[in-house]
Amino acid sequence: MAEHLVHSVAKAGFGTGTNELYDRARPSYQAAALSHIGNTLPASAPLNIVEIGAGTGIFTRALLAHPDWSQSVNQFRAIEPSEGMRDVFAKSVRDPRVSVADGTFDSTGVGDGWADLVVIAQAFHWCPDYDKASAEFARILKPTGTLAFIWNLENRDGAGWVAQLRERIERHGQGAPQFRLGLWRAIFATPSYTALFAPPLERTWSYALSGTRALVLDRAQSHSFIAILPEHDKAAVVRDINAILDRADGLVWLDRKAGVFEYPYQTLVVVARKK
């Protein structure tokens, strides 16, 4: 893997020592969204799956635990460029069908026509070359293969405090290609994508998770562009998030005594079939 193909903010923010927090703080994936991906597949089990940008294994664990998927996997190849994330993945995913290796969106090391499904969870906005990535996805997919992207994100329309939270942390984006900017949608107009894949299909789910003050703070600090801030800037972020939670604009309590409240979220799934 050529290191320059990994965005500098991602490389630093998801480096060694930051990923235990990421794995602890980030949410898992909704069962309905995982079922939806399965329902789009023309192939039947057992399935060969490639997950690119597999991170610490949050999506992988959710998929393997899902009743629609647990017995449907033949082999699962996780590709992740961050050594720190691969280390956490190897410790947290224990399944003989699963392997994890170094690689990038346009250089996976997977054989031609091996995969029934290529899935990218919470990662594709970091892709540096959409056309090369499209060609790589098509190369490793079977003729009837499916490409799926999935993201979780706080729903800023779900409560005032969430919108204020996002505005506070996003000012530190440092030019990173954050999911919310939609830059990743450029893939669908690239020559390789239009030649090799059918038009994408999208679906969004809105829901509320349970949250606590500690979880909101941890989740904010798990963002790559927050993780690399100087300590005094991190402290300012924490102070301001605490003030946002104190104002509690639109906050809905689930158990006020225990400090548990609704945490509005959305999940977006984009699925495309190889032509």
TrEMBL record:
InterPro entries: Diverse_substrate_MTase, Methyltransf_11, SAM-dependent_MTases_sf
CDD domains for this protein: AdoMet_MTases
UniProt KW keywords: Methyltransferase, Transferase
GO function term, MF aspect, one: S-adenosylmethionine-dependent methyltransferase activity
Any Pfam family: Methyltransf_11
Every Methyltransferase type domain range: 50-149
Any GO BP annotation: methylation
PANTHER family the UniProt entry points to: METHYLTRANSF_11 DOMAIN-CONTAINING PROTEIN, METHYLTRANSFERASE TYPE 11 DOMAIN-CONTAINING PROTEIN
Family according to the record: Belongs to the methyltransferase superfamily.
Protein name per Swiss-Prot or TrEMBL: S-adenosyl-L-methionine-dependent methyltransferase
